[in-house]
């Protein structure tokens, strides 16, 4: 699978409704995972909130979105980041190194509870980047 670059939108509790709406608009296949799917009872009040949603269309569009993690603030207007994901670890780590090098790291690039290597940073221009290296074994 080649690497992909796409928008990632943060929502304040209505990610499911938004992503279902975008599916109505663009068509395609929608997959949704809740915080409860990965954190079980530890997710608390966020159990049914969307931790990760992805819409893939036959037109080649990919749109990702999720509800803000518990304890984080929702800031409309700054709630869109850019996701870079794929399986080529060397390529993606190179992007990470260059993006985060002169920026600020908010989540170090490391293995996460869903099994992939993930990191989040803000580059020197104020753009938030999400880098996900798919490590699933198929």
Automatic annotation (TrEMBL):
It comes from the Bacteria. SUPFAM superfamilies: Glyoxalase/Bleomycin resistance protein/Dihydroxybiphenyl dioxygenase. It holds the Pfam family Glyoxalase. Residues 5-129 form the Glyoxalase/fosfomycin resistance/dioxygenase domain. CDD domains: PhnB_like. PANTHER family: PROTEIN YJDN (PTHR33990:SF1), PROTEIN YJDN-RELATED (PTHR33990). This is VOC family protein.
């Amino acid at each position: 699978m080649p690497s992909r670059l796409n928008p990632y939108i943060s929502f304040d509790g209505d990610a499911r409704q938004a992503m279902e709406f975008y599916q109505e608009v663009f068509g395609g296949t929608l997959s949704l995972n809740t915080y409860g799917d990965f954190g079980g009872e530890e997710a608390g009040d966020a159990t049914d909130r969307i931790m990760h949603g992805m819409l893939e269309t036959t037109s080649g569009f990919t749109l990702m979105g999720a509800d803000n993690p518990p304890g984080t603030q929702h800031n409309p207007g700054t709630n869109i980041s850019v996701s870079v994901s794929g399986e080529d670890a060397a390529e993606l780590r190179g992007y990470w190194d260059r993006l985060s090098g002169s920026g600020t790291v908010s989540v170090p690039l490391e293995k996460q509870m869903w099994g992939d290597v993930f990191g989040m940073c803000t580059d020197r221009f104020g753009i938030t980047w999400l880098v996900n290296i798919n490590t699933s074994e198929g």
